[in-house]
Amino acid sequence: MKSVIAAAFGALMLSACVPDIMNTEPEVKGLEGAAPVQTFTDPASGTEITLRPGGKLNLKLDSNPTTGYFWYLKDIDASQVDQLSDTYNADPAPEGLVGSGGHQLFVFEALSTGKSNLVLSYERSPEDVAETLKLKIKVIE
């Protein structure tokens, strides 16, 4: 029994010495927010996104305007993050099929350092909101 416990303890101690070869902690390497373009597809509300000035954020959200619902930008600090575009692209569908969905692609650019909330809503009207998406944007040097 002692040899099993000793072997398990040894394996645990050895695993603590293995370096992070997958680079899952980019802030340790100074890479946080370093990608010039970051793309998020249907992120969860509350997601934190780090950018650098000049960095772009592509936000791809499922959408089906044939239901009357569409994503709308509700809030952002325009002095820190600028919306460059908002386009809708239908998913491929068999000919003659009506009502298939697609996605909206929002493109934002980080302008200056600081923190900002990005709020979008999936709605038919301000009184008929199906979903609200709140993202935390951090722009660092």
What's the number of helices?
2
* Main beta sheet: 4 strands, mixed
How do the helices and strands follow one another from N- to C-terminus?
Answer: HHEEEEEEEE
Structural class: mainly beta
Integer average pLDDT: 84
Low-confidence stretches: none
Mass-distribution shape: globular
- The neighbouring-strand order within the major sheet is 1-3-6-5
Can you tell me the number of structural domains? 1
Helix content: 10-25%
What is the number of E strands?
8
Rounded to the nearest angstrom, the radius of gyration is: 21 Å
Short description, anyone?
The protein has helices at residues 2-15, 26-29; strands at residues 37-41, 48-51, 56-63, 70-75, 81-90, 102-110, 114-125, 128-139.
Structure description:
This protein is mainly beta. It has a single domain, classed as Immunoglobulin-like, CATH 2.60.40.2020. Helix content is 13%, strand content 47%. The chain contains two helices and eight strands; from the N terminus they run ααββββββββ. It has helices at 2-15, 26-29, and strands at residues 37-41, 48-51, 56-63, 70-75, 81-90, 102-110, 114-125, 128-139. The strands form two sheets. A four-stranded mixed sheet has the order 1-3-6-5, with no helix packed on it. The protein has a four-stranded mixed sheet with strand order 2-8-7-4, with no helix packed on it. The termini are far apart.
